[in-house]
Write a structure and sequence with these properties.
The complex is a heterodimer of chains A (354) and B (160).
Chain A: H1 2-27, H2 31-105, E1 116-124, E2 132-135, E3 148-150, E4 155-162, E5 167-171, E6 178-185, E7 193-196, E8 202-206, E9 211-213, E10 224-226, E11 235-241, E12 260-267, E13 276-278, E14 294-297, E15 310-318, E16 327-332, E17 341-345
Parallel strand pairs in A: 7-11
Antiparallel strand pairs in A: 1-2, 1-17, 2-5, 3-4, 3-17, 4-5, 6-12, 6-14, 8-11, 9-10, 12-13, 13-16, 14-15, 15-16
Chain B: H1 2-15, H2 17-20, H3 30-42, H4 44-61, H5 68-86, H6 92-116, H7 126-152, H8 154-159
Classes of the chains: A alpha+beta (354), B mainly alpha (160).
Chain lengths: 354, 160
């Protein structure tokens, strides 16, 4: 009795110390921890596979009972959406191709130049405190830790663990997920410069979202400016004196035709909250960020993903005091609750290379 | 040995059926339930050992650092075992209540353990929903799991 009790105490101490040791090893990204997982997988996968065979009908019955009406509704909605999208797809494909050609002509990196592997989702995280999924492709297909994962809509996560023929993906909503992003704004209002016949320079204010002749009462030759509305930003129109030769007017091309971009960091907030973007500089040059503007990956040598992968749209802007800049809540374009086939870009960031 | 073999199958159920069936988006936790059942049946020591082993096995299938689940479930087993000190000859429904309380605490221990190694962000209002659903699922499966855990650990009991 006493011996059994002592043995049990020893077992508890041994297991506790082992756990602490393994936590330390795994947090240091030790290969020993990965090796242990692989060895465990060798014994566990057959048991799991066998159990899956028996439990699949139960799961299917459950989904049949709980989701039948939703599936019918979704099916009719999707049919309608397909009909709407078919026309738009042709035009979009042409635009994408043109864009890729232009980028290639200028020697800029494009997603088309990066090889990809298609994989199927084979499992979800069994715990409530990890936003991960498992796919049926691994190191044999060239997948490495850190590679970005997309579905048809946009970025959904990154590879965190790779085995021979399966991998784990950390979803974009996991609180440990972070990636550098770009906020693509429509641009600031135009500043039109007009050279007048007068001798002194005057400055007037252009009201956003108006198409109006500027300074109609003055001696200047007028020019028309279309401003793109950016809340809270006030553009100025500077009227300069004309040259003695009587040159009537010169209109500077509008900078607002180009999209303005600002970078920040997107962080997951768990499955029940939308990811947020921090470190966005709310500068005058950039203008205020509006709800609905798209968020794409920033790219760059240290980024986890190549540039311009669609992530989502700004759903809410939370203003903060001081120099913190606004906090943006992001509505993801990808539906993470319904993932099936995914594309893994064989793009490994420098930070993940060993 | 029997414990490890049975835990293999419980874990397989966890990673297949219970990972799929998510009422209100929350997965039931069978290893947590098994540990709680072991604790309320055989006391602190057996509960702790069961939790540590079950958690370690669970960790090997998760993306979180190995060892966290082990420590969390070890504490769950110990917590469940404390119940026997309070009620040495428990009535069946008191066991179920103890399992429910331990399950709720177990769902709190795990995010705390994650936060202690820097993986924070899981302690939020959603935790209340998780606790509520996990408790309900564990109450439903507790009678079956009590039988399974009793059979699994019966050798251990005879040894004492």
């Amino acid at each position: 009795m006493a011996t059994a009790s002592t043995n049990r105490r020893r077992a508890i101490i041994l297991l506790t110390i082992s756990s602490l040791f393994l936590i330390t090893l795994d947090l240091q990204n030790s290969t020993a921890a990965s090796g242990l997982r692989s060895v465990f997988g060798i014994f566990f996968r057959p048991v799991e596979g066998l159990t899956r065979v028996f439990t699949r009908p139960i799961g299917n019955a459950w989904f049949g009972i709980t989701n039948y009406n939703d599936v019918l509704d979704e099916n009719s909605f999707l049919r309608q959406q397909i009909a709407q999208q078919e026309g738009a797809t042709v035009a979009a494909a042409a635009s994408v191709r043109l864009s890729q050609e232009l980028l290639a002509l200028n020697g800029l990196p494009t997603l088309a130049g990066i090889n990809a592997v298609t994989a199927q989702v084979i499992g979800e995280s069994p715990t409530n405190f990890s936003q991960t999924i498992e796919i049926n492709q691994g190191s044999e297909s060239g997948i490495r830790v850190g590679m970005p994962v997309l579905n048809a809509a946009g970025l959904i996560g990154k590879i965190t663990k790779v085995f021979e023929n399966r991998s784990s993906i950390m979803l974009i909503t996991d609180p440990d997920f972070s990636i550098s992003i770009k906020v693509v704004s429509a641009g600031r209002p135009a500043t039109a410069t007009t050279i007048s016949k007068g001798t002194s320079a005057t400055t007037s204010t252009a009201v956003p979202q108006e198409v109006s002749p500027l300074l109609p009462d003055s001696e200047t030759t007028t020019t028309t400016t279309t401003t793109i509305p950016i809340a809270g930003f006030t553009a100025t129109v500077t009227t300069l004196p004309s040259t003695p030769q009587g040159v009537s007017s010169i209109t500077v091309p509008k900078a607002s035709d180009l999209a303005v971009r600002e970078t920040g960091a997107l962080e997951g907030q768990g499955p029940s909250r939308q990811p947020t973007v921090r470190f966005v500089d709310n500068s005058v040059r950039f203008g205020d960020i509006e709800v609905g503007v798209p968020i794409v990956t920033a790219g760059g040598s240290r980024s986890l993903a190549p540039p311009d992968i669609m992530i989502g749209n700004v759903s809410r802007v939370i203003e903060r005091l001081g120099s913190a800049g606004p906090l943006l809540e992001i509505q993801l374009v990808a539906d993470l609750s319904n993932l099936s086939f995914l594309r893994i870009l064989l793009y490994q960031p420098i930070t993940e290379k060993k | 040995m029997r414990l490890v073999l049975v835990l293999f199958f419980v874990l397989a159920f966890q990673t297949t059926l219970f990972a799929q069936l998510r009422p209100f988006g929350v997965a039931g936790q069978m290893l947590l339930l098994f540990t709680a059942c072991a604790g309320v049946t055989y006391g602190v020591t057996v509960g702790t050992i069961t939790g540590l082993i079950a958690g370690l096995m669970y960790d090997f299938t998760l993306a979180t650092p190995i060892g966290i689940g082990s420590l969390a479930l070890g504490v769950v087993g110990a917590t469940a075992g404390v119940y026997l000190y309070l009620f040495p000859n428990p009535i069946w429904w008191l066991r179920i209540v103890a399992i429910a309380v331990t399950s709720a605490l177990g769902e709190i221990y795990y995010p705390i353990a994650l936060a202690m190694v820097g993986l924070d962000g899981w302690i939020q209002f959603r935790l209340l929903k998780i606790i509520a659903i996990v408790v309900v699922i564990n109450i439903l499966f507790a009678p079956v799991m009590l039988i399974v855990s009793r059979w699994t650990l019966s050798e251990r009991k005879r040894a004492t």
